């Protein structure tokens, strides 16, 4: 782990990550070889090293002060099959257990079936977090993965914020009212532009509804 910690520090110093819009994922302008970018969220980018396939480095591109909150969340969660684990951290990054699988978002894009068990797993993981004194929020299709048949929440960065969030409850309703009865048996492959349009439309709808 000491060697990996050194590599993670070097990556954090050399990688160039920018944030153009608070509502959109950060962008990676440069990352040194042989690190591979796995994905970007609204706060951070996640990288994997080929020699350490079971670990990832999550580097914050903005709101670095919230990194401390995420560390605190992982401490409160402890070990649970519905979440990753934090093995270390620096001023701008976390070292996490890598969850291998496919996000619900990519399942829709690739036409991969989403079993009901995955939804139940996430429900149970959210209840567990609440019992640990946390406030689960910002759980959506890009933050939930199917790994070895289980549903796992891969981003807990907002679990310290005691604010209402309907993303998971809305996604859950859509799953049971639309996806399960109509698309589960014959899943469609939805292009990314369409999925992104749904994401943006949902965001605008929620803002409009809150103003009413």
TrEMBL record:
GO molecular function: protein serine/threonine kinase activity
Lineage top rank: taxon: Bacteria
Lineage: Bacteria, Bacillati, Bacillota, Bacilli, Bacillales
InterPro entries according to UniProt: Kinase-like_dom_sf (IPR011009), Meiotic_Drive_Suppr_Kinase (IPR052396), Prot_kinase_dom (IPR000719)
Keyword annotations of the record: Kinase, Serine/threonine-protein kinase, Transferase
Domain Protein kinase: from-to ranges: 32-212
PROSITE patterns noted in UniProt: PROTEIN_KINASE_DOM
Name of the protein in its database record: Serine/threonine protein kinase
